[in-house]
Write a structure and sequence with these properties.
By secondary structure, this protein is mainly α. The protein contains five helices and no strands.
């Protein structure tokens, strides 16, 4: 913060774009190399991980949608689900280039991952066991795994997501 001053960018790696520009000689070449590496590393990191994440998500969507019969469908179904997983982020990145705005909206999914999905998993796993006439109670069961607690976590997660989305829509991304 002291080096970069008051104009700190939302994507911290971009602060390094002009790093070392006030020196002359051999050291600036090394500074420019370090600066360039820090600036492009996030893009290289995402570019290398994106195909793996898209394939994994596509495979998960494929097996979730088609169930046990997934292996009986033609391969182009699997390719279609992989495209379904990979094309929306590419379109989104081509429309919105401000990383701060992107993370404002994608950060909302963290609320779903942290609150909504665990509550739904707990609810449906309990339902699954009850449907099979198996007791869902284990040695790990407590007041935190009761239906009331699960419901409260679910409602809290939905409230947080709704509040965050409304705040972003009404007030926009913080500068």
């Amino acid at each position: 913060s002291v080096y970069f001053g008051e104009n700190i960018r939302s994507s911290s790696n971009l602060n390094w774009r002009d790093y070392g520009s006030f020196h002359k000689g051999v050291v600036p070449a090394l500074q420019k190399l370090v600066s360039t590496y820090v600036v492009i590393f996030p893009a290289l990191d995402v570019a290398s991980a994106f195909p793996l994440n898209a394939i994994t998500l596509g495979n998960s969507l494929y097996t979730s949608a088609l169930g046990d019969d997934a292996k009986n469908y033609p391969r182009y179904y699997l390719v279609g689900f992989r495209l379904l997983a990979s094309i929306p982020p590419i379109i989104g990145a081509s429309v919105i280039s401000d990383l701060g705005a992107i993370t404002d909206y994608t950060g909302i999914t963290g609320m779903a991952v942290g609150f909504i999905f665990p509550a739904l998993l707990a609810f449906y796993s309990e339902k699954y066991f009850l449907d099979k006439r198996i007791s869902p109670t284990t040695v790990y069961s407590s007041v935190l795994t009761s239906r009331k607690s699960i419901f409260l976590v679910l409602v809290f997660g939905i409230f947080l997501m709704t509040f965050a989305v409304i705040s972003l829509v009404v007030y926009g991304s913080p500068e």
